[in-house]
Amino acid sequence: MAQDKLSRHEELRYEYLLGNLEYLNPQQKEEFGYLYHKKQMSMQEMSSGYPSSANKEPNYERYDDYGDYYEYYDYYDDDYDDYDDDYDAYVTYDEYDDYDDYDNQVTSQGLPKYPQAKKSRTSKRKKKAKKQTSYLDYYEGIAHEEPKATKAKKPKKKNHKKRFKYFLQFCGFLVVIVMIGMVYMFYHGVHEVSSGETKYSAAVVEPFNGQDSHDGTNILILGSDKRISQGSSDARTDTIMVMNIGNKEGKVKLVSFMRDTLVNINGVSYNDYANDQKLNVAFNIGEQDDRQGAEFMRKTLKDNFDINVKYYVMVDFETFAEAINTLFPKGVEIDAKFGTVDGQEVSSVEVPDDLNMQADGSVPNQTIEVGQQRMDGRTLLNYARFRKDDDGDYGRTQRQQQVISAIVNQIKDPSKLFTGSAAIGKIYALTSTNISYPFLVKEGLGVVTSGQKGIEQKTVPAEGDWTDDYDMYGGLGIAIDFNKYQKELKELGLR
Hints:
Blueprint: H1 8-19, H2 26-47, H3 69-76, H4 87-90, H5 121-131, H6 135-139, H7 158-194, E1 217-224, E2 237-245, E3 252-257, E4 262-263, E5 277-278, H8 281-288, H9 293-305, E6 311-315, H10 317-327, E7 332-336, E8 348-352, E9 365-369, E10 371-375, H11 377-385, H12 392-410, H13 421-430, E11 432-433, H14 437-453, E12 455-460, E13 467-470, E14 476-479, H15 482-492
Parallel strand pairs: 1-6, 3-12
Antiparallel strand pairs: 1-2, 2-3, 4-5, 6-11, 7-10, 8-9, 13-14
C-alpha cells in the first residue's frame, strides 16, 4: 500500500519530532504517533513482499531499534498503550486539515519549522540536567556519562601572599636598622669609657682559660671589693657564684659558694690533700699574680668541685651600682630580710655604705628597713654585702642569691637588654669579663626567658652542713664533704 509510505516531508517531520520527543505538546504527540504507526505499517508491508512504488530500497537501518520504542514511550505517555489495536479510532490522516499546508511549515532546506523556547540560563541548566536521561542515549546507543564535577575555583591568594611577603620584608628591614643602631650606640658607650670621656676607667679583661660544660654554659660571677683607690693586689671577693644558662631544662641555675669554705689551692696549700685555705683567698692570690684572680678561682673550683666554667664576670662596687641604676631607673623591688641580731628580731639594720667612704677612710652607715621596697643600686649593693646579723656569711650568701633572682625576674621586658644601648656599653666597658657582645645579646634573651621559668638555687654548703675548722693561718673557716657536693653539683647539671 503505497499510501502508507511516508513522504519526504513526513519523513523529515517524523525525524524532527523524534529528535524533540521530550518537548512535544499533546497535539505534536498525536502527530508523532500517527507518523510512527504509518512508518511501522510501511515496514511491515516491505517485509511481506509488497515493496513501495520507489525503485530504490529504503534504508531503515537506523530504525532497527524502533520496535523498542513503545517500551520507553509507555513511560512517557500512557495514552499510546493500545495504539496498535485501534489505530483508526485514534486518528486519521484526513483529520489534519492543515497538513496540506505542511510545505509552509518547512525551511528552504526542507527542514520543519519548530517553535523553540526562549533561551535562558535557567532553561540551559534544566536542559543539561534532562540530557542526562535523554531517550537518544537509549535509541542511538550513546553511552551515558555522568557529568564531571567541576571543582570550585579557589580564591586567588597571590595578592595576599605578596602583601604578606612585603610586610615581612619591611619588618625584617626595620629590625636590621634597629640592630645596627643599637650596636653603634653600644660601642659608642664603650668608646666613651675607654677614651677617658667619663670619670670611670675601663676594666681590664683578665686571662681566662674557660672550659665547656656538658649541659649549658657556666659563668663565674665575682663581686670584688676593689675600690678605685686600691690596687689589684688588695682586692677581695665576698661574692662567688656560678650561673648555668642554656641548659636542657630551660632554667637559670645559680650556685653560691660560701667564701670561708676551706679548700685546697694548688701551690699554696701545705700539700695536695690539705684543705687549709679559704675559697676567696684564691681570688686574692690570683690578682697578685698579674691580675689572674678569675682564672685562679676557676682552677680552684675545678680542683675541689670538679666543675668547668666557660666565662667570667667580675663586678666591683661602683660598676654594680651603675648597672642597676641604668637597667632599673625606678629601682629593684625586693623583700628585705635579715636574721636576728644578738638573738633579737629587728625591723631595720645599719649597713656599711662603702660607696660613700669619706676622705679620711671612714665608712658611714645606711639604714635599711625590713620588708617590701624598691632599692637603687647603692642600697642594693649594701643589702647584698651585709653580714653582721646572726646568720653571718651564710645569711649574706642568701641575700646575694635573692638579689640576683630579683634582677633576673624583673627583666621581664627583653627590650631592657637593648634600650639605652650607650649606657649598657658603658657598663660593659666597666665590667671585667671575657663574654663577647654577640654572646651577651644572644644568651641575654635566653636568661630573660629562662628566668620566667624559675631559678634553681643552691648554696654550698647548705645551712648547718659544715664543721668549724681553721685555715693554715689560724683563721676560722668551715670544712665540708667535697664528695657529697661534687655529686650534688653533677645532679644539678653543672659538671
